[in-house]
User: Fold this.
Amino acid sequence: MTAAAVLDGCAHFALAVLSLAFLLTVLRVVKGPTLPDRVLALDMLVAVAIGFIAVIGMKTGFTFYVDIAIALALVGFLATIAFARFVLARGRGRAGEGGA
Assistant:
C-alpha cells in the first residue's frame, strides 16, 4: 500500500464525513427552531464548505484552493458578525416594545 493510496482513501473518508456534516447542518438550518440556531448552522455550513475546499485542494494538488478557503473564511466571519448584530438589534426591539 503506497502513501498515495492511503492519502486518497483518507480524502474519500473525509469527504464522506463532511457530506454527513453538511446534511445534518442543512437539517438544522431548516428545522431551527430559533433564529440564533439558524445563524449558528449557517456559520457551520461555511466551516464545512472550507473543509470541502481544503480536502479537494489536497486531493487535486492545486494550491489555489487554499486562497479560496481563506477568502471564504473571511467572508463567513463577516457574515456571522452581521447576523449577530441583526439578532441583537431584533432582541432589543422586542424588549423595547414590551416595556412601552
